[in-house]
Specification:
Chain lengths: 315, 409
């Protein structure tokens, strides 16, 4: 059954099967979208997300999980239908500013952020002489409101990086390479056994576990935030972080000992490490959260270059 | 909270992905809304584990905290119940246990005494303790009952006070939670659990002060309610107070009805959460509280506004039965000052003219036709003129603030 048909044919048949139903739910007619164009949109979305080996059932599940009414609204706005815009503005204008304010935490920056997004939603850029609205990229996987918040947050994070580049031009080279690849040069650590042990311990974790660790210890996200991200209770995350931290230490220690380190020596290596970290965390907690992302991002690079005494540069 | 070795953090930080491979905004949103299937969720998770930017985006994009407000409200309720029910039960059980032991002891003792006095003609000496034992036995019960009385007496009072002012509770309940969890050392895991109780007390104290300050300028109805409750709290009959505060006579809508009147100087801002809950903010959008109009549907206001007898007839039932649990799913809200209109799925329209303290269900109807479908938008150009449109394409207009409605063809 699997991959017996090419994915496009599979999507087409799933779309034509579900279109009457989804179309009725979407309220397309009132906002100027025809049934045919909505069918095309659905097919595009399904093609975008389904893997080549998807089964018909997967295609159906995906289509049924879409927020068709919001998808129709967004795409009708993108296509320039006024009635859709009216509805969009009524429903989302106020929320957009509120979300921007929450993300930027400061009124003028928030207005700026929201205005920029507005312009993009309305479509200032043109492609082949046609106005291109950012709403054309909304696919209805999540709520439109959530999508707007995510887009705002992305814009905010991007802008952050840009502003920072303007502030310190001398670091532009570094900024540019930030996303290119894993650090190319790595100064060999004074004790590579610790790093090896760390690597093997981390490799044994699931991606969710690594995500939780990174979010909590690196990003300074709160337990509540992580819990909401994962849709679990805060206390679950609290226990999880605690357990993970303990397990990691144990594993690293075991690995170092296995590599021929004396237990005492291994414990010391880890102890020094943890003490440094505590200072680190306290510092990141006392820092203004708005500056958090960058100072934290910068630290490891500096650290990698001048191991031993990098802390004062971070400030 | 345990710390992890720095080498771990370094490694976590060094894992970076190539540019261009970030999941799109749709996937990130769907991830945060828990609506991805396992396969995609795993892919996004893998990316998030390595990409601090996307983690930052997704945390920044978390919705306003309706969940927090709702849970803290739920925990208020739970705490209140626990505060009242558990100690009472515990004392009651203890008192009952002592009573049983004492009375059995006394009975046994006096039986044996009687037997002994009869059988072996023993001195009266031993019978005296039996009598004096009997007296304490009733006294044993009385102090217990008095403690119980005190407990139940104080419980509803504090309950009333916390109920009057849920906002500080929501703050004290949620904000320190994060802080304590971060700053607390190894006990970070327990801190959030332990916190709400001291918060309760604070909230009670704060609201007591506020109550005192505000009592003079409370609106008439609210004053009645709070006075009634003060009287009830001072009511010396423990049984009634106990049943009153744990049972139905403590109005579940009280927090919502009274708190805004303490705060309503500025008109709140209104929004609808992604989950469809109606929310308002008194601080310009920093914190949001969920409002359930069903908790405070005002039957009097209903008669004023709703010209559909069914709707006004249904409202008190809603209040009694469905109110605490039934959360309508809102799709549209329009506010102008203290006048707020909100519409739900399945076409229920709510109106308040005091910023959300008292609500009325309004059922637009004209010539026998009533509203159908979900309400998708509400617009009021001024308090008198407004229009409501539904998912079924109906458009209802009013020119007199909702007294009469006209259905557009």
């Amino acid at each position: 059954m699997r991959a017996s048909k090419p994915i496009s044919a599979l999507v087409q048949s799933a779309v034509s099967e579900l279109l009457p139903d989804l179309h009725a739910k979407s309220g397309c007619e009132k906002i100027g979208l025809t049934r045919e164009s909505f069918g095309e949109i659905l097919a595009d979305v399904a093609m975008k997300y389904l893997p080549a080996e998807a089964s018909p059932a997967e295609a159906r599940t995906l289509l049924l999980s879409l927020r068709v009414d919001e998808l129709a609204l967004a795409r009708a706005c993108a296509a320039g239908h006024n009635s859709a815009w009216e509805i969009f503005l009524i429903r989302y204008r106020e929320k957009l500013y509120q979300s921007a304010l929450r993300i930027a935490r400061e009124d003028s920056a928030a207005r700026d952020l929201a205005d920029t997004l507005y312009a993009e939603l309305y479509g200032t850029g043109t492609r082949d002489g046609e106005r291109v609205s950012k709403l054309a990229s909304f696919t209805g996987r999540g709520s439109l409101e959530g999508w707007l918040r995510t887009v705002l947050a992305q814009e905010f994070v991007n802008r952050y990086r840009r502003t920072r580049r303007l502030v310190s031009l001398d670091e532009e080279g570094e900024e540019g390479s930030q996303f290119a690849a894993p650090e190319p040069e790595r100064v060999p650590s004074p004790d590579s056994r610790l790093e090896l042990a760390t690597d093997s311990a981390l490799a044994s974790l699931s991606s969710e576990e690594r995500m939780v660790l990174a979010a909590y210890f690196l990003d300074g996200s709160t337990l509540a935030e992580i819990a909401r991200l994962l849709g679990v209770h805060e206390s679950t995350i609290s226990r999880k972080v605690d357990k993970l931290a303990k397990a990691l230490r144990k594993k690293i220690l075991a690995h170092m000992i296995q590599q021929g380190m004396a237990r005492r020596q291994a414990e010391e290596a880890l102890e020094v490490d943890v003490r440094d970290l505590r200072l680190d965390i306290r510092r990141s907690l006392t820092q203004d959260s708005s500056g958090r992302a960058f100072s934290e991002k910068r630290e490891p690079r500096v650290e990698a270059r001048t191991p031993g005494g990098p802390r004062e540069i971070g400030n | 909270m345990q710390n992890v070795p720095k080498s771990v953090l370094k490694r976590l930080q060094e894992t970076r992905l190539g540019a261009g491979s970030h999941p799109d905004a749709d996937l990130l949103t769907a991830f945060a809304e828990q609506s991805l299937a396992d396969r995609e969720r795993a892919l996004v998770m893998q990316h998030l584990a390595a990409c601090s930017d996307c983690r930052e985006v997704i945390v920044l994009a978390l919705p306003e905290t309706p969940a927090q407000i709702v849970t803290s409200r739920a925990s208020v309720r739970a705490d209140r119940g626990g505060l009242l029910a558990w100690p009472t039960l515990r004392w009651a059980a203890l008192a009952a246990g002592i009573l049983v032991v004492a009375s059995v002891g006394v009975l046994e003792y006096s039986h044996r005494d009687q037997d002994r006095t009869i059988a072996s003609n023993f001195t009266v000496k031993d019978a005296v303790p039996a009598i004096s034992n009997e007296a304490p036995s009733s006294q044993v019960a009385t102090p217990m009952e008095e403690t119980k009385r005190e407990l139940t007496l104080s419980a509803p009072r504090s309950q009333m006070l916390t109920a009057l002012e849920p906002a500080p509770k929501a703050n004290s309940g949620t904000q320190p939670r994060g802080l304590a969890a971060r700053s607390g050392g190894s006990d970070g895991g327990m801190a959030p659990r332990a916190l709400p109780r001291p918060g309760d007390r604070e909230a009670a104290v704060i609201s007591e002060n506020q109550l005192a300050q505000n009592r003079t300028d409370l609106p008439m109805q609210d004053r009645n309610i709070s006075n009634a409750d003060v009287v009830k709290a001072k009511d010396p009959l423990p049984a009634q107070a106990a049943s009153g505060s744990s049972g139905a006579s403590a109005p579940p809508g009280l927090p919502l009805q009274t708190s805004p009147s303490l705060m309503l100087r500025v008109p709140p801002r209104w929004t609808i959460s992604p989950a469809g809950a109606l929310q308002r903010s008194f601080d310009g959008g920093n914190t949001w509280e969920t409002v359930n109009p069903n908790m405070s549907v005002d039957s009097a206001a209903d008669q004023n506004l709703g010209q559909n007898p069914d709707a006004s007839g249904a409202a008190p039932d809603q209040k009694k039965e469905a109110a605490p649990n039934f959360h309508p799913i809102f799709r549209a809200v329009a506010a102008s000052g203290l006048e707020v209109w909100a519409g739900t799925l399945a076409g229920v329209l709510y109106h308040t003219s005091d910023g959300g303290s008292h609500w009325a269900r309004v059922a637009p109807s004209e010539a026998g036709a009533t509203i159908t479908g979900d309400i998708v938008s509400i617009q009021f150009s001024d308090p008198q003129q407004g229009r409501v449109s539904t998912s079924t394409g109906e458009l209802w207009t009013t020119f007199d603030g909702g007294q009469t409605w006209h259905k557009q063809p």
